[in-house]
Amino acid sequence: MPDEILTDEITAGAVRFATVVVIGAGQAGLSAGFHLKRRGFVSALAAPDADRTFVMLDANPGPGGAWQHRWESLTMATVNGIFDLPTFARTPGSEDESSRDAVPRYFAEFEEAHPLPIVRPVRVLEAARADSDPRGDFLVRTDGAGIWRASAIINATGTWNNPLLPSIRGQESFEGRQLHTRDYVSAEEFAGQRVAIVGGGISAVQQLEEISRGAQAFWYTRREPVFLEHDFNPEVEGRNTIARVTADVEAGEPASSVVSYTGLGWSPYAIAARERGALERRPMFTAIEPEGVREADGSFTPVDAILWATGFRADLTHLDGLGLRNDRGGITMRGTQVADEPRIHLIGFGPSQSTVGANRAGRDAVRAIEKLGLGRSERNASRRAPAVGR
Ligand SMILES: Cc1cc2nc3c(=O)[nH]c(=O)nc-3n(C[C@H](O)[C@H](O)[C@H](O)COP(=O)(O)OP(=O)(O)OC[C@H]3O[C@@H](n4cnc5c(N)ncnc54)[C@H](O)[C@@H]3O)c2cc1C
């Protein structure tokens, strides 16, 4: 019996305990849940008094993480590749199926095969330290499942809810439509229009290619896009990219998008856009006016819509109360753990922002937390023990 049905039994305002609270149940959260269970952690819903427990809190109404919200034309053929969840191969289906149907269905099958204590839809509003003891527990406050007291937190909240929207002079004066990648539905709604598409990433190129089939599309990027002149080699470039992103987050730098590290591949849609003459990049416009954009060279281009394909950043505002950020706005990491707080792990973050990365990060976070020896008996013992230095 899946634990989700216990949602109603968790009364708002009640404080419950779980050794580990996992926030988010996309690919990263599911991987963490799988490995917690494999290593003997049990459901805090079904066995609240057990020694080592965990619960997973997910804001989405059903399985699939952010995949359930991707735009329809992002099919299994146009995604970059979905890595299997731990030990659970995806049954190959139609390449034309939308990823927002295929991936959530696959996640649901995984959750059926590996029942996990997932409570949804429940949003974590904030996490804070329970008291002034730096070794003490955390309190995780939710919008519908009360407050959870936890010894460790694995955060797996992805990026989908934190779209990046640059601010450009005159933006509010625009009389046409502005939307972000995450609000894109289909190219049909732009048919016959003049559309400015902003951004140098994979989504920008995909949406440019689609929209330019039936509309006049203008492509703007801040920097000259770098296209790889050979096929992306995951063994070489994948490893190099991960090493560079890891070095940045371990140095406490705010992590950028993965494409800023890898460059763009000559995917079928990039080639199609180039052949249609749509892949003509313009330097970023300098201002927005009511009926269009002011180009870098001072000329004016009238547009009906501006699509901000400007990416996403880690969605971590609910952790603000933990004071994890450094003065550059980054979070200094060591592997999946926050550098000076081994009980907080960020997965699907920095170098693990991919399906394969999320899988591995979930496993690594659980291994690291297990080594800390957290559990109810340990917790009670540490409460009885005199504080170090007294
Ligand atoms: C447009 C796009 C296309 C991509 N294509 C690919 C691809 O082809 N291949 C690939 O490997 N990777 C791809 N990625 C990246 C990949 O989707 C993710 O890195 C990967 O799925 C890991 O997801 P996740 O679990 O970190 O996050 P998500 O799938 O975003 O899951 C996070 C979960 O956390 C929940 N959540 C968020 N905030 C809270 C909160 N406060 N409280 C409770 N729950 C919360 C959300 O509801 C969600 O269910 C793509 C990303 C984007 C944006």
Rg, Cα atoms, Å: 23 Å
Strand content: 15-25%
Helical percent range?
10-25%
Query: Which small-molecule ligands are present, each listed once?
Result: flavin-adenine dinucleotide
So what's the overall shape? globular
**What is the name of the CATH architecture of the largest domain?**
3-Layer(bba) Sandwich
The structural class is alpha/beta
> How confident overall, as mean pLDDT?
90
The third-level CATH topology of the largest domain is: FAD/NAD(P)-binding domain
The helix count comes to 8
Unreliably modeled segments: 1-6, 382-390
CATH class assignment of the largest domain: Alpha Beta
Largest sheet: 10 strands, mixed
What's the β-strand tally? Answer: 18
- Give the termini separation: 48 Å
Tell me the CATH superfamily of the largest domain: FAD/NAD(P)-binding domain
Structure, explained:
- By secondary structure, the protein is an alpha/beta fold.
- The chain has two domains: 4-161 and 314-384, FAD/NAD(P)-binding domain (3-Layer(bba) Sandwich), CATH 3.50.50; 171-227 and 264-308, FAD/NAD(P)-binding domain (3-Layer(bba) Sandwich).
- 24% of the residues lie in helices and 20% in strands.
- The strands form three sheets. Strands 1, 2, 3, 4, 5, 6, 7, 16, 17 and 18 form a ten-stranded mixed β-sheet that branches. A five-stranded parallel β-sheet has the order 8-15-9-10-11, with helices on one face.
- The longest helix is centred in the middle third of the chain and has 17 residues, at 234-250.
- The chain starts with 14 loop residues before the first strand and ends in a 6-residue tail after the last helix.
- Flavin-adenine dinucleotide (FAD) is lined by residues 23-29, 57-60, 65-66, 70, 79-83, 123-124, 156-158, 160-161, 203, 312, 315, 318, 348, 353-355, 358.
